[in-house]
Here is the input.
Amino acid sequence: MQYTRLGRSGLKVSRLCLGTMNFGPITDEKEAFRIMDAALDAGINFFDTANHYGRSGHSGETEEIIGRWFSQGGGRRERVVLATKVYQPMDDPNDGPNNAGGLSGYKLRRHLEGSLRRLQTDHIELYQMHHIDRNVTWEELWGGFEFLIGQGKIGYAGSSNFAGWHLAQAQAAAKERRFLGLISEQHKYNLMCRLPELEILPSARHFGIGILPWSPLAGGLLGGFALQARQGARSQEQQKKIEQVRAQLEAFHALCNELEEDPANIALAWLLSNPAVTSPVIGPRNLEQFQNALRVIDITLDDTVLNRLDEIFPGPGGKAPEAYAW
Here is the structure.
């Protein structure tokens, strides 16, 4: 496994991040345990989750599964750089009016305690804001994060789904407080969603924020099965989406066949070729999918292949403002 620093921090993480969103709703606990054990064996030390992940009506289920895996011992917790998120409601009637989505100082503290309890740990390396909260000041946010870091309950602050100017706001406010601020931004980014190249990626590189792409396979469209006939396995909406991009997918698969590589791994390798990207967040549903993804670490895409991918999946034309101005 290859490792790199997360943003401008000194924290080293694996170039692949194990996403756990499927643990509970799709992947049962036994299979989740097998995937996490295999991840450690492969050298993946970076695990990502969120406090509300789980089946409908069971917010926190995914964290509970990870916590039970940690409780087995064997250095499992000690070997993991653990990331979770806060923002969403947690179906807790005790929260009262504060149960809505948001990032108040109250919610940061209270929901962190819930995550620590479910995860059966006393600290989290990376605590991520799952969305921007326009009703909370940066004075309140950074005050809350500073307090939790001072207590030793979290190590670093991260964000998810922020706009480029939100990253700039966050870092400007942190600098005024002589606080490190954000070290990561988890963002939707893949060959079929390249808008982040306008503002997010340039902003992140400028401020030393590592990009953690979520949905790196565009909800499965960039995987090896998108063009295969799967009678009754897809909704009409899913099939309609495939038909809209069929020409692109066919060209992409043709290129992957030339390279003799799995389409999913080419999509991941493309992300890893971008210097702004720290670790794509992969979300395997089973052990086989996880093991197949490990191949990506050994794939290097040359300029010819990168140019062909640009032709198949055109980006926004570069960073802003050049992409839309003279």
User: Anything to note?
Assistant: The two ends are 42 Å apart (CA to CA). The chain has a mean pLDDT of 94. The longest strand covers residues 154-160.
